[in-house]
């Protein structure tokens, strides 16, 4: 019996070892000319069954199913000296890259240089990584991004199951709002790119700097606990495969924008770099407090107003094509025994977007389609972006790697809106103008170290600094009115009390600094070459975030008998110094409130520990616990007194369990439980009132918001037919306590949003993902084809509770009863998501192409009340087409069409309050669900040329 057990154990061990395989790929070159060697033989020595292959026309080779372990690789070719490369380590499920050269046989053999590393940016590598992650995760690789020709992370992440995009930059996972996502770049939490919401703008990350993106759907102890939809990790490229330099330029044509004549305004300065001239800022001589400014007489206030430039005049212009330029530079060199790598990427883009926006607000009384306001907005926005990635990596020794990574983005938007329509409730024809400039600077830089203490123990640490700056210098707004239906001249409305939605100049600035420290230790038990050894992990995370926000608003009002004549002048002259004279024309008031400025402080402390428990060879349970303590406070100066507005100190215990059962070597069943949270952001808490001209809406914070808690349960079946293929089905359930949502305030004939906590919510659904290739097909065409598709079906329901705590129109906190539906879907939650893509890639011919499709179900944009119905964002079917041709491995030409169907972006209110948007003839009020805002973005055509000056050695 003992012998039988021993024999069975050895057989099982042999089978297990045989199933643990990896990939060896690389390039062989001539040591003198650096040209590729075609037909060189590459062999793995010492195996019972010989294994080898030969290099192709590019000198490249790939050996699959190489047994895991350390091997000697022999390379030979006629007239060249045979080379043996020892100690080449193959890791199970991973790809090892080997690049070396051969010397001619008549030369003396010189030192052998072996360079090997783990590939992380291919589809196979990402699928392998996802397979080995204990949590449920999905991802997208640099290789797939290249196939899709996605310009940035926002476009690329649409390929991930359960992910959709809002406004071409914000990510929704499992149909949940952007606030329920946590975003990390190189394992450090990113600063929010927005002021008004908790969200990260994914269009800030150009696709050419991405190594891979992994989306975690379930919690792990080492992940931040502030998420419910997903935790998204973006990894930028670490080091080049070899020295290279390439440059690319892209020109874009957008239907309805490019070549059209539009109205814009000047900002001066280096506007093309996202900067503006100094005269756009409020002079330092202005009194700091509104009370001091308004106590001055009208002549003194007008003297201050004359210091502001009269830059209101609109300028017609013809929209030029979009342009993007990218420069990528990589170097590897040795300093003594230290291998140093540098990767630098510089991206610049100037883009344009024009649209005609239909905008309507309704009375929403018993009569359907009773319009209160209706407008057509001619909008034009020019955006610029300057992005720099600068990474350094130093391999100090085989046991110590040091990295410094920096990512910087400078962005600007110059937006002009001309509004024409009627305010029917006030019997007024309206012509309004908005001239807005926004600048954002976002910087993250980090120093990271990886230490291998032994084969079983590894330590890593990160120190990080982040900065976010946002400026809205001199946002100018004006509204001309006349009696509706008459031919009277239009005159600017100048109320006596400063009002944000009337004439005035708005300035704001935000500075946010974050400091982070991360430390992790991992220890494996048993044989370190095991495919999945038992491990224990522990770590700490600290983040300090300080925000300083200040806004100023100045309004013009009338004075003297000549004011009516002055107010009738065109926008370019009405605010000239001779008219803003303080005696017989216009003067200025300061409408700034003390609460228009605030300071936010957040201290975040976290620690975790997790470990693996194996129940036999097929079952693994990962148990983790994370504790997070968060101290969040908000302060403002009220009447000159520093006042604490918010103080939230919360400790959150966050356990997690992840169970994996291996049905076969290619199929798993996973079960997961995790407890997570969702914290309010500074802007959601701050009682600052912000007027959004485009939405005709006020947005204000709610100081009573509290942290939401979420319990998450997931079950998943996954099957890996081959190393690059995947089929999976996932079911999930989430239960929320105090979910945070956007809420419409009770305000007649206009819109005002705030943020509230509902009592509870639940969310459940199923996701299906398929990645399929046809490499075994007899058709050469099908061998080059792969298909990716994912479908999510989701059901959600919110229990609002008896009371809604929210500010009223004056900002005072009130408790409202019976003002909204007691039960409805979760705000921002789509009932379905579907993505699909067909890819064609023929490396030998240089052709690549794909067609991509994306759609989401209607989702709540803003929760309604008894006065204003709930507003939904409606589905859009999006189809993209891309084609690429590579010539001589140096020149790449790309052609693309995005959003071929060009369907309306549409927001509709549910007048029938039945949860459906449409014309239900069975309803008592048919044809009553109304569009409140809709427009087309225009199909987008791009042509790119990329030239590589230094050849990339490894082409996945």
TrEMBL record:
Q: Which Gene3D superfamilies match?
A: Carboxypeptidase-like, regulatory domain (2.60.40.1120), TonB-dependent receptor, beta-barrel domain (2.40.170.20), TonB-dependent receptor, plug domain (2.170.130.10)
Q: Which UniProt keywords apply?
A: Cell outer membrane, Membrane, Receptor, Signal, TonB box
Ranges for domain TonB-dependent receptor plug: 138-227
Residues annotated as domain TonB-dependent receptor-like beta-barrel = 534-898
Subcellular localization is given as: Cell outer membrane
Q: Which Pfam families match?
A: CarbopepD_reg_2 (PF13715), Plug (PF07715), TonB_dep_Rec_b-barrel (PF00593)
Extent of the signal sequence: 1-19
Read off the InterPro entries from this record.
Answer: Beta-barrel_TonB (IPR000531), Beta-barrel_TonB_sf (IPR036942), CarboxyPept-like_regulatory (IPR008969), Plug_dom (IPR012910), Plug_dom_sf (IPR037066)
Family note: Belongs to the TonB-dependent receptor family.
Record protein name field: TonB-dependent receptor
Query: Native species of this protein?
Result: Fibrella forsythiae
